[in-house]
Amino acid sequence: MKINMICFDGVDRSGKDTVRVKCDRMFDYSLINVVRGPIGYVTYNRQFNKGQDEEAFIETARVLDGVMITIYLRNSVETLEERCRATNEVLRDGRSISEQKELYESVVAEATTKWGLENVHVVDNDGPIEDTMARIADIVRKYGYSPRPIK
User: Fold this and answer.
1) Rounded Cα gap, residues 137 and 93, in angstroms
2) Which residues pair with 124 in a beta bridge?
3) Which side of the chain, N or C, has fewer Cβ within a 10 Å radius?
4) What is the largest CA-CA distance in the chain?
């Protein structure tokens, strides 16, 4: 199967929407770009103690792994705290940003080790957005897509 979707996952304020919009333009809308997928659903199931059956999310992730790239946008705690202050964002469950980040990253690791997902990539997103987009372009290029320059 050909990859035709990118799922951006990450802690609140990690830059998912910004990167998604730029990817739409970078790849001329030839890929479906979404925010939050099975990795995010499992993370928030655990974070908010929802008690949902994670096996359904994990099975969905396995099926989508053949057609979807998952990109986890990793940020430093300092960057995330700065972005939360700038937007007056408050974490809904009272956890610290470092606790939320730690939980997310443990689920990302689990996705590649226990779930067997092959198309999960981690992209650091602390620096300029152009650097992040260049790293994403390099990843997507490996799947046969040619990015165009964006501003």
Assistant:
1) 34
2) 74
3) C
4) 44
